[in-house]
Write a structure and sequence with these properties.
This protein is mainly alpha-helical. 42% of the residues lie in helices and 6% in strands. It is built from 8 helices and 4 strands; from the N terminus they run H-H-H-E-E-H-H-E-H-H-H-E. Helix 3 packs antiparallel against helix 4 (143-165) and helix 6 crosses helix 7 (210-220). It is elongated. The N and C termini lie far apart (122 Å).
């Protein structure tokens, strides 16, 4: 019986089968390059997930995110552009609207500020009233009447100057409210405060028949959400708290 021994592989180069070349992966990295820290199947999965959208091949965004350095100055080239939008800043801040009570008291103060002075002066002047309800100037005009008329004109000029320079009347000044532009917090100019709110509205209110209706509707408009009367709508104004 012959001896049985283990066969040893042949060392003859002619009989050694040629080794197969290494199979190339999805990505070929050059010599010395550091491959990404994930296998080829992850690259395939990412590539398929980012297949063409709207006819354009999108590069996988996982690569720059996975290999982004810890440097805080690093900017992702695929990130959306960052744009700083500057919001318009109002001049005096967003001040609240004047209340209806404040506007009512402002009108009362404007009316009483001159009436409490002029009416007593007319009473002390000794003027007599006729049966028709008119003053009797048959004996001349008393000096006190001239004084009352002068005070009335001076008060009217004061109101005019305050509207021109401060956009406020005496009553609004006392209640700390002001006539502003509707689109901003800037005070309204004299064209709006004097010409439109005062002169135009005054003419409309003095017209026969429709003047009374206009005056009533003008007052009722203050009960709207923005508390703007018709003269505010015509002039493009609104009454707000005055800045401090």
């Amino acid at each position: 019986m012959g001896s049985v021994g283990l066969s040893t592989p042949s060392t003859d180069p002619a009989k050694v089968p040629a080794s197969r070349p290494p199979k190339a992966g999805f990505l070929d990295y050059p010599a010395g390059a550091i491959p990404p820290p994930f296998p080829d199947w992850a690259v395939w999965l990412t590539f398929i997930h980012c297949w063409p959208l709207q006819g354009r091949l999108l590069l996988p965004t996982v690569f720059p995110l996975a290999m982004a350095p810890d440097d805080p100055s690093y900017e992702n080239p695929y990130a959306a552009p960052k744009t700083r939008v500057r919001q318009p800043r109002l001049r005096d801040g967003n001040r609240p609207l004047a209340s209806r009570i404040e506007r009512l008291f402002a009108i009362i103060i404007d009316s009483l500020a001159i009436s409490i002075v002029v009416i007593p002066m007319l009473v002390m002047s000794g003027l007599e009233v006729t049966a028709d309800g008119e003053f009797d100037f048959s004996n001349g005009v008393p000096p006190m009447v001239f004084a009352a008329a002068g005070l009335s004109v001076a008060y009217l000029v004061l109101q005019f100057v305050m509207l021109w320079t401060k956009s406020q009347t005496v009553g609004k000044r006392a209640m700390n409210i002001r006539i502003d532009e509707y689109t901003s917090d800037r005070r309204a100019g004299p064209v709006k405060t004097i010409l439109i709110r005062g002169f135009v509205s005054g003419i409309l209110g003095s017209l026969p028949l429709i003047g009374f209706v206009f005056a009533v509707v003008d007052i009722l408009f203050i009960f709207g959400k923005e508390k703007r009367c018709i003269h505010d709508l015509l002039a493009g104004t609104v009454v707000r708290k005055a800045p401090r």
